[in-house]
Specification:
The protein is α/β, with parallel strands linked by helices and 276 residues long. It has one domain (6-269): Rossmann fold, CATH 3.40.50.720. It has eight helices and eight strands; from the N terminus they run E-H-E-H-E-H-E-H-E-H-H-E-H-E-H-E. Helix 3 packs parallel to helix 4. The chain is globular. Bound molecules: nicotinamide-adenine-dinucleotide. The site of nicotinamide-adenine-dinucleotide (NAD) has 29 residues, from helix 1.
Length: 276
């Protein structure tokens, strides 16, 4: 069976989403860039189709925070490409959207109104869950699927609220969902760049030097490998794009850049557990 798949990349018009799409199209996958900014997704899809000499990239407008949009995106992509094999849950936003200098001067507790808190969680964790739920029946039917969740670095999880908490929730859920789906042919993994990455996610007001940031392209190789049959048995892992050496064979690069998702080292701190 050929390795080509149908993937939806949420936030596909953004810096990291585009970079992953540019790498994945090389492997012959058909891609849908789902983005709340449907016009931007259409421009990016057109550009990648032109560069790659293909018409395998589709744009879909939609808000991952709306379950109906998640279902509609999976339905539309299934209509056009026949099925959905891969969900890359990459749509997300950070403190810059609430306050342009928010990545530098973190949002305070006073700023975390129920609306602000809710926005972060509805996009960064509810969205991935509903995208996965919409695609799961088809994946189960075919006995093959990939869910790839973009979280963030450990220090950000513990520092930058509510973004960090929303991504920590996605990280924990990824580990749990990988276990739940074990044996179904559907894997769940996490991919992160490994530090601040030069995309519009970080506004200029954060005053971070873009030349010292990671390039969004570091996310391409691990995501491409996870979509291949070589990664059929890989689940519940997290891969750091910035540590992935594209010069190495994929399995070696994965061994260096990968570790279990979540915080398994905290297991040692558990005093008693009913199954023990
Ligand atoms: P970006 O702002 O360039 O792209 C994000 C894209 O998501 C945008 O195109 C935006 O329109 C889209 N989006 C936002 N809300 C949406 C919604 N509700 N529904 C659908 N689309 C939506 O940012 P990026 O750096 O490419 O971020 C991609 C992912 O990487 C995010 O999940 C982010 O949290 C994560 N991340 C980024 C960094 C970084 O430093 N840039 C570091 C670690 C993790």
């Amino acid at each position: 069976m050929a390795n080509e798949r149908v993937a939806i990349i949420t936030g596909g018009a953004g810096g990291i989403g585009q970079a992953m799409a540019r790498r994945m199209i090389v492997d012959g996958h058909r891609l849908a860039l789902m983005d709340i900014d449907g016009d931007a997704a259409a421009r990016v899809a057109e550009a990648i189709n032109k560069e790659a000499g293909t018409n395998g990239v589709l744009a879909v407008g939609g808000d991952v925070a709306k379950p109906a949009d998640c279902e509609a995106a999976v339905a539309k992509v299934s209509d056009v490409f026949g099925q959905v094999d891969v969900i890359v849950n990459n749509a997300g936003f950070g403190a810059s959207r609430i306050r342009p200098d928010g990545e530098k001067n973190l949002l305070t507790i006073e700023e975390l109104t129920p609306e602000v808190w809710g926005q972060f969680f509805s996009v960064n964790i509810d969205g991935p869950l509903q995208m996965m739920r919409a695609a799961l029946p088809g994946m189960r039917e075919r006995g093959w699927g990939r869910v790839i969740n973009v979280t963030t670095s450990f220090f950000t999880m513990l520092r930058n609220m509510p973004y960090g908490a929303s991504k920590a929730a996605l990280e924990a859920a990824s580990a749990a969902w990988a276990k739940e789906l074990d044996g179904t042919g559907i894997t769940v993994n996490v991919v992160v760049p490994g530090g601040p990455t030069d995309t519009p996610f970080i506004a200029p007001e954060a005053e971070m030097d873009p030349t010292k940031m990671l390039r969004p392209g570091v996310m391409g190789p691990p995501v491409a490998w996870l979509c291949s049959r070589d990664a059929d048995a890989v689940t519940g892992q997290r891969f750091i794009g910035g540590k992935w050496d594209p010069e190495l064979p994929d399995a070696e690069a994965a061994a260096i850049a990968g570790s279990p998702a979540g915080w398994p080292e905290l297991a040692a701190a558990t005093v008693i557990w009913p199954d023990d």
